[in-house]
Amino acid sequence: MNDLSEWLRSRGRRAVYPQMGGVGLKLTPYRMFQVYEDPEKQLEISLRIEETFSTDFTYPVDFGYVFLHDLGLDMLKPDHDFPSVLENPAKTAEQIEHFRRAWEQGLDLCGEKGGKALLPAYLESIEKIASRIPKPEMVAVPGPFTLAGELVGITDLAKFTLKKPQLVEAALELTEEILCGFITEAVDRGASLIQISEPTAVILSPAMFRKWITPGLRRMFGHINGRAWSALHICGNVDAYLDEMISAGPMVLSLDQIMDMKAAAERTPGNIILAGNTDPVGIMLQGTPEQVRSAVETLLNEMAPYDNYMPSFGCDCPVDTPVENMQAFTEAVYGWKKGDGGQQR
Question: What's residue 176's pLDDT?
Answer without folding.
Answer: 97
